[in-house]
Specification:
alpha/beta, Metallo-beta-lactamase, Chain A, seven-stranded mixed sheet
């Protein structure tokens, strides 16, 4: 159902400088103090990220198949196995923030490409994966605040919410059907929604893969070094970035879920219609003034040294 994130408002102006939104070169994250921890972070598009530190690889919301609009609405979900192998082989764990197709559709294929990876997500996510053939012993249902440790990584699930889209949210499927799986990607259920706090090597990352907020779980969070913030469908969450910034006081801000996920990865990145780039830059500037937060625009599919 995250399809609605792409079409809720008119397209961005034609003179939007796409090369300023989606850089093509990667470098190290500019930590304000302290040395890099040794490792990498790759934005794989949409809300997907892969961390690698000390030989351990974990992924969040991994999705690279990117079916076009017609296929999303009318055809059965089918992963691009070759693209999955290229991006997500050798994973030790996968964390799924919610079960919409652009966060979870590739997970069964990833489970095959990374046979030792555990799949972590909501009850709906783990049941969906089981129905799609992922071994039940590999599927771990997470709970708000219950930490998962994978190698050097400490991952805390944070109960959260999906971004709000007027009218369309009424037809959003939340639960799985009694039997089987939805016929098309468009009807994949949302289930519960989680953000994630990732700690590794003395650094902390808050991954907000959906643009809704739940006050109590967010309020218990400590400040973090890096805030990764979904930009799609944020319009329905009042003071979205300001509220995240007030609690997390991040040193760095990385946007995500701002690329058009109907375009294949073989084509240059383009913004979603709901981006509102000018408004985002103003919100990011307000975080810089209030907390010293520095905006970093991640390149897609290129590792940032962390």
């Amino acid at each position: 159902m995250c399809i609605v994130c792409a079409f809720a408002v008119p397209a961005p102006p034609s003179d939007l400088a796409v090369d300023r939104i989606f850089p093509t070169e990667a470098s190290a994250l500019p930590w304000p103090e302290g040395a890099p921890i040794g490792g990498s972070l790759v934005w794989t598009g949409v809300a997907g990220f892969v961390f690698e530190v000390a030989g351990t690889r974990i992924a969040f919301d991994p999705f690279v198949s990117r079916p076009g609009l017609f296929a999303t609405l009318a055809r059965r979900a089918r992963s691009d196995d070759a693209a999955v192998v290229t991006s997500f082989s050798g994973l030790d764990a996968v964390f799924v923030g919610h079960t919409h197709y652009d966060h979870a559709m590739d997970v069964p294929s990833i489970a095959a490409a990374s046979p030792h990876a555990t799949i972590n997500g909501s009850r709906v996510t783990t049941e969906m994966m089981r129905r799609l053939g992922v071994g039940a012993g590999r599927c771990c249902t997470v709970e708000d605040g219950r930490v998962v440790e994978v190698g050097p990584f400490r991952v805390e699930p944070i109960a959260s919410a999906h971004g709000h889209v007027p009218i369309v949210h009424w037809i959003d499927r939340v639960e799985l059907p009694r039997e089987g799986v939805p016929r098309t990607p468009f009807r994949w259920p949302r289930g519960d929604v989680f953000a994630w706090r990732v700690e590794v090597g003395g650094r902390s990352f808050h991954l907000q893969g959906s643009a809704g907020l739940t006050e109590a779980p967010l309020a218990r969070q400590r400040p973090c070094d890096v805030l990764v913030a979904c930009l799609a469908a944020r319009r329905g969450t009042p003071d979205y970035l300001a509220r995240l910034g007030a609690t997390l006081r991040p040193a760095l801000l990385l946007p995500c879920h701002h690329d058009d996920f109907f375009r294949p990865l073989s084509e240059p990145a383009a913004p979603i219609a709901t981006l509102r780039w000018g408004a985002f830059r103003e919100e990011a500037a307000a975080l810089a003034t209030a907390h010293g937060t520095r905006l970093v625009l991640p390149p897609r599919m290129r590792p940032l040294a962390i």
